[in-house]
Specification:
single chain, mainly alpha
């Protein structure tokens, strides 16, 4: 356990500064390349869990079909961004996350599935396409806003982990993820709120503007927990502990971006309509 924690910390200390540098000091071509790598690695991890090398027929065909559709979703995202129509995909993704939230909060039983339907494929195509679209659009609007979102979600994840580990008593969606606790969740909300307030004070924002961002941050933290639970649910359905092993101590790429899956489109669309792009 201690060895795994050490690996998590070392990986975070390497990856986060690199992300900060790329977001603040690189151009859109570099960001697009990084996002493409993240999306396609996540897509391969999804496919490995759901479609590839399982025991039912036509399985590998589903894998290649899924990867091709993810590629098309990224292509569509770039077209929508170019013509300033990205809102349609993001709103559709937010509505989808509303249904996913309702589903997760009503899950009563977990069974390992030997066959994943095309519904899972469609859901993940929309989710991964909207993740690319929202993160890239947010970068084009404001690299600082993208960095704030990633920092907010990352700090919330860290706070949930440590508060849950040392103070957690009551389970939070025990059926889906036994290690998550209510105390950990409220720890993540508190840590994210403190980060938001400190940032707004540092930027000398007005009170109303600060309250808007604080409200949005709390909502994003809640949805980031739903994103984490959604990937945990798929892992439970497929009988996997992690989505991969590319990041020492963390698992796969999808294990790291799961909280961003709903957080990114929701942060973008609410920031846009509330006029709080920072």
């Amino acid at each position: 356990m201690q060895d795994n924690l050490k690996k998590r910390i070392i990986t975070a200390l390497i990856v986060y500064p690199l992300l900060v540098f790329c977001i603040l000091y690189s151009n859109d071509l570099v960001i697009r390349m990084i996002l493409n790598i993240i999306i396609f690695l996540s897509a391969f991890e999804v496919s490995k869990m759901c479609f590839y090398n399982n025991l039912y027929e036509d399985n590998n065909r589903k894998h290649y079909f899924f990867i091709a559709l993810v590629f098309l979703s990224i292509l569509l995202s770039n077209i929508l961004i170019k013509y300033n129509l990205w809102q349609y995909l993001i709103i559709a993704a937010c509505l989808l996350w509303g249904f996913i939230t309702i589903y997760i909060t009503n899950v009563k039983k977990i069974i390992i599935l030997d066959r994943f339907s095309f519904i899972y494929m469609f859901i993940y195509i929309v989710i991964l396409g909207s993740l690319y679209c929202s993160l890239y659009t947010l970068f084009l609007f404001s690299p600082e806003a993208l960095l704030f979102l990633i920092s907010l979600v990352s700090l919330s994840d860290i706070a949930a982990f440590f508060v849950g580990k040392y103070f957690g008593r009551r389970p939070f969606f025990n059926i889906i993820s036994p290690n998550k606790t209510i105390e950990g969740f409220f720890g993540s909300v508190l840590a994210g709120s403190v980060l938001t307030i400190i940032y707004c004070i540092f930027q000398n924002y007005e009170f109303i503007f600060t309250m808007k961002i604080l409200f949005l941050s709390v909502f994003v933290i809640f949805m980031s927990a739903i994103g984490d639970l959604s990937v945990s649910l798929v892992k439970r359905f497929s009988g996997n502990k992690d989505t991969g092993n590319i990041l020492p101590g963390h698992g796969g790429i999808l294990d790291r971006v799961d909280s961003l899956l709903p957080a990114a489109p929701i942060f973008l669309i609410f920031s846009y309509f509330l006029s709080v792009i920072i």
